[in-house]
Structure formats: C-alpha cells, structure tokens
Amino acid sequence: MTMAVAADILQSAFAQQVRWNEKLGAPFTARAIALAAAAIDQGPGAYLLGLAGPDPVDGAFALRLAGAFHALALTRRDQRLARIYTDLRTADLSVEIIAETLRHHQDFITAFVASPPQTNEIGRSAALLGGFLLLAQRFAMPFRLIEIGASAGLNQAWHRFFYQTPTWSWGDPSSPVQLTPDWVGPSPVLTTARITQSIACDVAPIDIADPDAVLRLRSYVWAEQPARLARLDAAIALARDLGVRVKKADARAFIAQNFAPTPGNLTILFHSVMWNYLSEADRTAISAQLDGQMRAATAQAPLAWLRLEPVAGALAASGDAPSGFVHAVQLDIGAGPDCQIREQILGYSHPHGAQINWRGPI
Ligand SMILES: C[S@@+](CC[C@H](N)C(=O)[O-])C[C@H]1O[C@@H](n2cnc3c(N)ncnc32)[C@H](O)[C@@H]1O
Predict the structure, then answer these.
(1) Taking the domains of the chain in order of start, what are their residue ranges?
(2) pTM here?
(3) Pairing of strands 303-310, 143-148
C-alpha cells in the first residue's frame, strides 16, 4: 500500500504550482489548485494525500489533479464544472464546488492522477523549423527524419503547419494548424524541404486513435488556453490524416537501429524537451555515438542533430538568451572532414515556442 505524503509537503507542492500557474498566465487553473489544497485541509480532499507519492513536486501531482478537473469538464462528466470551465470566471470556482468535485468523482480522479502528465507541444515546431530550413538550404538533399521522445507524434507534421510571424511566413496558408510565434531576429531562408522518410519513437507513446489517450493530452492544456486546445485538436486531426505513427521504443535503442548515413539523403535526428528525461548514462552514450558517426559521415551521406532543449545555466547566460528563456535550438552537423559543426546555438525559444529569438548560423 502507498504511504500517505505529509500534508505540509503536499500543501507546499500545491502552493508552488499555484505560483507557477499565476506567473504563466493561468490564474483559473491556479485557483482550482489552491481550492483543492483548501479542500485537503477541510477533509473532502484528504484522500489525495494517499495518491500524491513521496515527492509531489517531482511527480507533478498538482498538475495531474488540475488535468483531472479539466478532464471532468471536457467530458462533461461533471456538468457544473463543464459550465464553469467554459465561462472561465475564476470567481465561479469555490472551495465548496472543488470539495464536492473531489468527493463525487473520487474514483475518476484516483485513476486519472495515477499516471504522469503527458503533453505534446506543437508550438515547438516553429523553433525547429528554423533549423530544418537552414539544413534544407545547406544540403540540396531530401531529409530522412528520426524523432525521439515524440509523444503523440504531432510534431511529425511540422512541414504541414502554416507559420505566420511578424516578419515572414512559411507553409500552406490553408493548413488547419496555424502557428503564430513572435519571431525576433533574422528570418530563416524560406526554402522548401523534401522528406523521404520520417519515423518517431517514444518510450510511452500517445496513441491518437485512442479517445482516452487523446482526452489526457487535451486535459493537460490549461483551461484558460482555448486557442491552444483548438490548435492541439487541429494537429491531432492532421496527424491522423497523415497516418503518423510513433513506435514504442527507448530513444537509445531507436537511434542505434535507425540513425545511419544514407547516401543521397540528409539524415536528421531531432527532438524537443525530452533530453532531460534520459538517464545520464544514456545521454553520454548517445552523444558519443552521434559524435563518432558524424566524424565518419561524408558529404554524400551527411548527418545532422537538431534539438530544442533546456540548456544549462552557464550556456544560457553565455549567449544572448532573453532572460527567463532556458530553451535553445542547437545543431550538430557531420558532412565530411570540411563540414563538422558541434553544438551550434541557432536561437532561443520560449518553452512552447511562443517567442523565438533567432540568431541563425554563425
Ligand atoms: C515533455 S514530453 C515532450 C514531447 C514532445 N517531444 C514535445 O515537444 O511536445 C517528453 C517525452 O519524452 C518521452 N521519453 C522520456 N524518456 C524517453 C526515452 N528514454 N526514450 C524515448 N522517449 C522518452 C516521454 O514519454 C515524453 O513523451
């Protein structure tokens, strides 16, 4: 049987998440979490202590609970919550309503919070696009794409989205998925990319054909972001149309099986916000493998590694990262002895790609 976490530890985790949500412009979700904390003290939410695990911050328990509330609203299992979550008036949420929700839907909430949050942020494609276009310009070759940690695989459709920034646009304007990042810095070269193959893996892939899995994905978009939810829905529909598949596989094994030079193609490994989920040993082994392969690659069968990942404090501080931006687009290239590039920072990005400060190649 799972041990109950101490009430003060859970309260502190909830308080921390409330502050984050307020900071990130999600006051409605912040209030739902704050009221759940009150309902724990009052009794109806006390069972959450037995579900939260020993480290509720690390386990993102407050986010799991916020997701469960949103799921109850999205599915209309709770009609009153559905109405409140549609109107999004923070004042309509009260401790009585949250306490009743916790009491009434204990089984649903218990099942929902048992697994970790799952997200797939398509806004990140805008930051990766700058790298893809740079590679398309440099190499007049079709792409062989390999994505790791792809989640539901929605970023597999990056080349079918329309990107509209203040200074440039790219893609099909009639695409159902429209990304509108605030792009600061030089425009990428607005060329086209040909793709011969695109494969993806995730250790816990989200099956977009499974309505329960899709509900979980939708529930983790905060309720006060309806435009983001609509964009997610459009991306899911597009990925279904394109027949996107994500193989259940560990990144290290998937790379070992698939990342290899292919004459006439530029083989690109890409990923976003998944690197820190790997063990230190896997990160070291993958980096060493890629470095060795890139050194051996030729101009006829080049390799590239493109990623959008959080960067360590010193690296972020050494560049022109806008304050608070700790995600960078980085690129490695191996294309023969005269073309070896390592850890080139192409730009910095808001974690969801809402703003991108682009440097371009140096
Ligand atoms: C924060 S999500 C990011 C998903 C997606 N790349 C995006 O940007 O929206 C991290 C993903 O990495 C996956 N992941 C974690 N460890 C992994 C591993 N060892 N191999 C493959 N995928 C992994 C998780 O299952 C999760 O789907």
Answers:
(1) 7-112, 124-358
(2) 0.92
(3) unpaired
